[in-house]
Specification:
It contains 10 helices and 9 strands. By secondary structure, it is of the alpha/beta class. The chain folds into 2 domains: about 1-15 and about 30-65, no CATH class; about 85-295, Glycoside hydrolase/deacetylase (TIM Barrel), CATH 3.20.20. It is globular, with a radius of gyration of 23 Å. The structure holds zinc ion (ZN). Zinc ion binds near residues 121, 169, 173 and 209. Pfam families: Polysacc_deac_1 (PF01522).
């Protein structure tokens, strides 16, 4: 916002300069504001348009936060990195001979105060969530299991159309280490094919159910196009957070897990859960960024 404000000030002084010939109509009359805006071309026009968009976008965020009952306006994420960080498997999360397999991690190695929001399974299909997240402009990623989304694929098509990336959480949400390599392959690669057919894009990310996996899981996932296996550092519920780390806190790059659930599964609605997690994230000084910009 500081940069945008400065930009507006600079352009303001530029616009106050002597009007050029084109600022007047053929009869010497002043053009109406729309015409003037259209004629303001080149770099300064593009900059002004960008500053104006940033200002309007922030105003929309403030209004949306108030409308949806958030305790404060979510912080805007910084521009995505030009180069994605190098991902490695978290210490203690390795499998044997896993050096060339997709990395398994709970935090993305970044220095900025950003965290990532991921929502799993797909049981609850609350239209309010789509409206809320779209208006708040909070990015998130969905990890979908076919056995719970197959009664309403259209809901997730709408989600995709809002810019949310849909990723793989297996066909039937089984405990992967309990299955043979072949059965794991069917669960993971079957959902890769399924999501590609339904939504037009083959997921790059896979999250094993319950966060449980073995070497076969990662080999099978790699074999059908999975690039990385993001787990989570914290889990959000409508009334509390659960933490993986001993300090019970957020850290730059932490991945937050939550679920598509409703009143019959937990004490609240999807919007209640978002209000709770955003209160924690914003109070701790973090912005939610788009996982796919970093991974
Ligand atoms: Zn799950």
């Amino acid at each position: 916002m500081i940069a945008a404000g400065l930009l507006v000030a600079l352009l303001g002084s530029a616009c106050a300069a002597e009007p050029s010939r084109s600022d007047h109509g053929p009869d010497g009359s002043r053009p109406h504001p729309g015409q003037q805006a259209k004629e303001r071309t080149g770099a300064s026009g593009a900059l002004a348009a960008r500053a104006e968009r940033a200002k309007r976008s922030q105003a929309a965020r403030v209004a949306a936060a108030r409308k949806w009952g958030l305790t404060s306006t979510p912080l805007a994420a910084p521009a995505p990195p030009a180069v994605k960080p190098q991902l490695t498997t978290r210490k203690g999360f390795e499998v044997e001979d896993g050096e060339t397999l997709p990395p398994v991690f709970t935090t993305v190695p970044v220095t900025e105060r950003v965290v990532f929001l991921t929502i799993d399974d797909g049981t609850e299909k609350d239209p309010e969530l789509l409206r809320m997240m779209d208006e708040l402009q909070i990015p998130y990623s969905a990890f979908l299991s076919d056995y719970v989304i197959n009664d309403n694929y259209g809901y997730f098509r709408q989600m995709r159309d809002q810019g949310v990336s849909l990723h793989n959480h297996t066909l039937n949400h089984r405990y992967m280490p309990g299955l043979s390599y072949e059965a794991q392959r069917r669960e993971i690669c079957g959902q890769q094919d399924n999501l590609q057919k339904l939504y037009g894009k083959r997921p790059a990310l896979f999250r094993p159910p319950y966060g449980n996996y073995n070497q076969d899981t990662l080999r099978a996932a790699q074999g059908c196009g999975v690039k990385a296996v993001p787990l989570w550092a914290a889990e959000a519920f409508p009334d509390h957070m659960e933490w993986r780390e001993w300090d019970r806190d957020l850290h730059p790059g932490d991945i937050i897990l939550t679920h598509f659930r409703g009143r019959k599964d937990w004490q609240g609605t999807m919007p209640d859960m978002i209000r709770q997690v955003m209160k924690t994230v914003t109070e701790k000084g973090y912005a939610v960024a788009r996982l796919e910009d970093y991974v």
